[in-house]
Amino acid sequence: MLKGGDPAPAVTARNQHGETVSLDFDDPTVVFFYPKDFTGGCTIEATEFQAALPEFREVGIGVYGVSMDGVESHAEFADEEGIIFDLLADPDGDLADAFGLATDDGHTDRRTFVVADGEVVAVYDPELADPSGHAREVLRDTRNEFVRGG
């Protein structure tokens, strides 16, 4: 698994709208991997990142969710939960592999990566039954990292 200081991989995937999204991670970005759309912990995590999205954007930090679900599942999940940031479909596990995550039984582990200037800045392991508060933790830490005096 990638760790702080490792080069961030350039990745390309389709979002919930079927659009191709390519990330080179020059700008501060949060990429959170979650096991599956429509499951309890994953829904909490995604909706909490959505709730904090205006604050992430205010300080210039992009947010992307990734699971091995397909575009159609992501579209339904985003629509049902009001998620407007990109959910990247990784049905073959290519993005998970690029970040060094296992892909067991069509799922990845729950991990969050903060990347900027082409490298991994931080890795979070929110392997909790209830990931409540994780998005706020990442927001607090990224604000401290990328916004001086903020």
Automatic annotation (TrEMBL):
Pfam families: AhpC-TSA. Keywords: Antioxidant, Disulfide bond, Oxidoreductase, Peroxidase, Redox-active center. GO terms for biological process: cell redox homeostasis; cellular response to oxidative stress. It catalyses: a hydroperoxide + [thioredoxin]-dithiol = an alcohol + [thioredoxin]-disulfide + H2O. One of its GO terms (molecular function) is thioredoxin peroxidase activity. Its EC number is 1.11.1.24. CDD domains: PRX_BCP. It comes from the Archaea. GO terms for cellular component: cytoplasm. Residues 2-144 form the Thioredoxin domain. PANTHER family: AHPC_TSA FAMILY PROTEIN, THIOREDOXIN-DEPENDENT PEROXIDE REDUCTASE. Belongs to the peroxiredoxin family. BCP/PrxQ subfamily. This is thioredoxin-dependent peroxiredoxin. It comes from Halonotius aquaticus.
